[in-house]
Task: inverse folding
């Protein structure tokens, strides 16, 4: 079959990203031809600032080298500007006469710097700041001349000015508005920014209107004159006063433009065979000038070019961060205030910290930060998710508590870290390595950084730091994806919630059935979606869905915990931490018989036998004659108890028995992530109930129940749910909360993540206020656990594959 | 000289799963995909020696159970950006019997 022809005009960041996304979906659908008016393959335009600042070379910022085009059979015409589109015959023509036919045309022509219409704007040495050519012109000028003037005190202007200053020029920034970056900053933060830039040697002329540029005998700029009659010398003049979508080509072909090529939510122009993405586009009246939204557009456009036809672009919220080394500035959303909005403000002039949060209807709509931007990514996420923040309003200003985050010396300010300092304690990755990878490999997302550097890829406690490093290296190009629309994994477009809902509504009963119904893009998923799907199916349809061991991590297949050397550890249950001489004797016998090298008392009140060979597991289980402790599973782990009223002189409730009862009730339960309980007999809380998924504390008049605590990567104190009187009530409330978590949490979210997402008020409403709902949840969990079997019992697990084949 | 040896039947290996063969050259992981293709790799992850046989099989890849590198079953190469290679052994399937060539 003859392939369709796709022609792309504009070889920049948005266009090439669209091709990459398209090739991922449909590598063979099109013969692709690309025209680019620059002589370079696609490069990372935003890194022109570090190039100008002398932190990087041009060769470091190429994103797709010529080999990439070759490998993907793309015909590339560099240095050829397309000047005509013949829409009737579907042919495009370049300046030099090269032509190409198309079935689909993709316009990605970017934008042009706006040059002020003043006398002298055509003199030599007057340039915009857009591409490699401009950057080289600046670098050359810096070597030869002294005085540089930048018109425009926005992001681009300041980055240009900073770079030129670093190259030894005497730089003045001229700005027409009363303060810098007026579209991103309010006056206070702008003043602080100006002060730090002045400390770096930059000069500023604010509220200055330019009259004209004066030239010398050779036609090179030599001075800039203002309306107030003053003038200053200028051997290089950079105009950074804004950009204009590059619509000339589209307009000449009669395609509807209105401050940008007008597209609908599928990135299609008014001509159905022509699509457009990037800065040249006007979508719902907005033209974007940062890469994050362009990448969203690219994804949607590729989806339609690949004829999948399901994606929609609905606009983006953007954030900005100035890429000037040593300056910490972040802004996102709408912070201009106005009616119906509230502001929370913190200003520590001496400490150099300024923070402003703007709220509307209990939602965060804007944030500006100067000096301390560590919570930028978190605020941005809240803005994008449109999350109701009423619950956390009183401490919103103090950011997402990073207290208790372990593994990087308590550091939580990326800007203050030297390059040599370790960011990721699990994989030993330093800040400098991350920054270098982001710049040179063209990384844009947290996922990219995880893949390439392994930072934040293990326990995740350094994620906040890595996000800060991304944001400060990429400027507005870093946009954490709104979690509400984030697909489960690379195999699907659907979110966890959509998948769970569909499994229930359509009564899907197996992984292949679910993948088929939901249009999975891979034949049998991946190591991340299959375990999630397996759990979602089992949770939605207990007793009807068959467990799929091949979609479980090895630990849950072998019912032991895999060790570095491939052996397993075995932890039998000791309900509530209570054991007997007989159990201890059996454990000791097993340890002797199988020559167990290490016997350890765990942090969860039971005993761990390490170093057991896989093929020995079934006989170890048989000899122990105890129930599996699920120390390996996304399942009920331990119910930690204290001594309680039976022996302890302070005890007011029988916490040990309560714990034992709970552990029996919840035994064999699978959960989205591990699930831990504790019961203490009085508020001295010796069982550490305040850091458990469910923590129960006995008081004179009954029991207090706390939920969503966590003692792991990031310590989180559990939140109060309810106080009850009887043991039966403890059982009912605990199981109801557990089932709510089982039914609604995303796979691999602990209760703390789940409750943070839905809010404790929602949980209270479901479990405490609505008695019928509580009973129903409780009953559903009892039903799911009915007849559950100990996996260590004979014949519960197919152990044939445990046996090795010997030659 | 060819050195094919029957080691198992297709039924011995779970679909999207694996078995371990003990051999003079070390443990070999024998994988079966959903399409009933069979592959064999040295049971040693190029990263830090994890037992690939214990990983989750998907498409024509396996995810190492230690740190989740993805290894291609056909040639043993790690999926980019990771680099490394687990030795692979030729395998053939004849009438339900699985043969492996050991050199
Ligand atoms: C055996 C034990 C350590 C010990 O010797 O005491 C242990 C061992 C492991 N823990 Fe743990 N944890 C053990 C108690 C804890 C505790 C304390 C507790 O439960 O009272 C915590 C903090 C409490 C909590 O979970 O909130 C704890 C927080 C973690 C975490 C971080 C979880 C989090 O959400 O932040 C991980 C990593 C993970 O699950 O992703 C982890 C993961 C692990 C793994 C399973 C790592 C792995 O995936 O292989 C360790 C297995 C070692 C091995 O080779 O077998 N372990 N781990 C403890 C088993 C308790 C038990 O009887 O079941
Ligand atoms: C110095 C600098 C710093 C920046 N910093 C950031 C930042 O920190 N964060 C951020 O998010 N964004 C930043 N940006 C903006 C970002 O680079 C752009 O949003 C992004 O590159 C736009 O992508 P695009 O594909 O739409 O356009 P471009 O990348 O400009 O690509 C368009 C291409 O089309 C070519 N072209 C145009 N017309 C034709 C034609 N008729 N025929 C053939 N080819 C044609 C152009 O030559 C160009 O190569 C920065 C920009 C600059 C210049
Ligand atoms: S047992 Fe837990 S804390 Fe100790 S090394 Fe393993 S994962 Fe880390
Ligand atoms: S040993 Fe395989 S991923 Fe680390």
Result:
């Amino acid at each position: 079959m003859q392939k369709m022809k796709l022609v792309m005009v504009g070889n920049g960041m948005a266009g090439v990203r669209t091709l990459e996304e398209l090739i991922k979906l449909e590598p063979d659908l099109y013969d692709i031809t690309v025209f680019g008016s620059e002589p370079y393959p696609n490069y990372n335009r935003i890194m022109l600032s570090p190039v100008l600042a002398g932190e990087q070379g041009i060769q470091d910022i190429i994103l797709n080298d010529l080999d990439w085009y070759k490998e993907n059979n793309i015909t590339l015409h560099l240095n050829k500007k397309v000047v005509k589109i013949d829409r009737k015959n579907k042919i495009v023509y370049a300046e030099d006469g090269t032509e190409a036919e198309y079935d689909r045309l993709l316009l990605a022509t970017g934008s042009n710097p706006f040059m002020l219409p003043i006398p002298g704007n055509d003199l030599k040495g007057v340039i915009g700041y857009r591409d490699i050519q401009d950057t080289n012109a600046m670098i050359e000028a810096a070597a030869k001349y002294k005085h540089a003037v930048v018109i425009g005190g926005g992001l681009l202007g300041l980055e240009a000015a900073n770079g030129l200053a670093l190259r030894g020029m005497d730089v003045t920034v001229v700005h027409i508005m009363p303060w810098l970056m007026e579209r991103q900053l309010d006056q206070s933060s702008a003043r602080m920014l100006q002060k730090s830039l002045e400390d770096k040697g930059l000069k500023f002329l604010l509220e200055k209107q330019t009259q004209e540029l004066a030239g010398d005998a050779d036609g090179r700029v030599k001075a800039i004159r203002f309306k107030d009659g003053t003038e200053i010398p200028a051997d290089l003049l950079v105009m950074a006063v804004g950009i204009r979508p590059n619509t000339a080509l589209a307009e000449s072909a009669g395609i509807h433009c209105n401050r940008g090529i007008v597209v609908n939510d599928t990135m299609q122009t008014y001509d159905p065979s022509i699509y457009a993405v990037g800065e040249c586009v006007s979508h719902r009246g907005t033209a974007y000038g940062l890469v994050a939204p362009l990448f969203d557009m690219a994804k949607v456009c590729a989806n339609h070019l690949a004829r999948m036809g399901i994606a929609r672009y609905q606009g983006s919220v953007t954030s900005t961060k100035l890429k000037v080394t040593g300056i910490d500035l972040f802004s996102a959303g709408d912070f201009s205030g106005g009616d119906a909005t509230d502001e929370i403000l913190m200003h520590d002039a001496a400490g150099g910290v300024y923070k402003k949060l703007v709220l509307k209807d209990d939602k965060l709509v804007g944030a500006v930060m100067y000096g301390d931007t560590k919570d930028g990514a978190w605020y941005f996420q809240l803005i994008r998710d449109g999350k109701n923040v009423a619950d956390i309003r009183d401490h919103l200003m103090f950011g997402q508590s990073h207290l208790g985050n372990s593994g990087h010396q308590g550091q939580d300010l990326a800007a203050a870290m030297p390059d040599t300092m370790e960011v990721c304690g699990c994989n030993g990755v330093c800040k400098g390595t991350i920054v270098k990878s982001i710049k040179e490999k063209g990384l844009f997302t947290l996922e990219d950084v995880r893949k390439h550097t392994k930072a934040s890829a293990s326990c995740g406690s350094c994620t906040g730091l890595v996000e800060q490093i991304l944001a400060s290296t990429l400027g507005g190009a870093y946009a954490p994806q709104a979690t509400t629309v984030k697909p489960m994994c690379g195999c699907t477009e659907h979110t966890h919630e959509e998948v769970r809902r569909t499994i229930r509504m359509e009564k899907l009963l197996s992984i292949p059935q679910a993948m088929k119904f939901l249009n999975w893009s891979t034949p049998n998923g991946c190591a991340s979606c299959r375990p999630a799907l397996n759990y979602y199916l089992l949770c939605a349809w207990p007793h009807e869905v068959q467990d799929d061991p091949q979609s479980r991590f090895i630990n849950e297949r072998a019912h032991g915990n895999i060790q570095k050397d491939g052996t397993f550890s075995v932890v039998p249950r000791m309900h509530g931490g209570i054991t007997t001489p007989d159990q201890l004797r059996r454990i000791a016998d097993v340890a002797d018989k199988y020559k167990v090298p290490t016997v350890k008392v765990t942090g969860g009140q039971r005993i761990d036998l390490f170093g057991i060979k896989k093929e020995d597991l079934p006989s170890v289980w048989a000899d122990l004659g105890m129930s599996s402790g699920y120390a390996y599973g996304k399942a009920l782990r331990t119910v930690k108890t204290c001594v309680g009223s039976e022996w302890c002189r302070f005890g007011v409730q029988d916490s040990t028995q309560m714990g034992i009862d709970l552990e029996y009730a919840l035994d064999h339960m699978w959960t989205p992530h591990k699930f831990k309980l504790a019961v203490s007999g009085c508020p001295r809380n010796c069982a550490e109930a305040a850091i458990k998924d469910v923590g129960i504390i006995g008081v004179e008049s009954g029991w207090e129940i706390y939920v969503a605590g966590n003692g792991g990567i990031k310590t989180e104190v559990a939140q109060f749910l309810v106080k009850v009187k009887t043991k039966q009530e403890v059982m009912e409330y605990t199981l109801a909360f557990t089932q709510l978590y089982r039914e609604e949490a995303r796979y691999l979210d602990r209760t703390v993540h789940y409750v943070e997402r839905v809010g404790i008020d929602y949980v209270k409403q479901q479990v405490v206020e609505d008695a019928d709902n509580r009973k129903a949840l409780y009953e559903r969990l009892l039903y799911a656990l009915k007849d559950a079997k100990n996996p260590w019992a004979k014949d519960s697990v197919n152990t044939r594959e445990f046996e090795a084949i010997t030659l | 000289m060819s050195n094919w040896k029957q080691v198992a039947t297709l039924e011995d290996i779970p679909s999207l799963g694996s078995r371990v063969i003990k051999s003079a050259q070390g443990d070999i992981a024998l994988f079966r995909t959903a399409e009933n293709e069979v592959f064999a790799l040295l049971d040693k992850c190029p990263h830090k020696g994890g037992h690939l046989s214990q990983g989750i099989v998907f498409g024509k890849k396996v995810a190492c159970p230690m740190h989740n590198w993805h290894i291609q079953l056909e040639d043993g190469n790690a999926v980019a950006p990771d680099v490394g290679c687990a030795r692979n052994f030729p395998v053939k399937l004849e009438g339900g019997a699985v043969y492996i060539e050991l050199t």
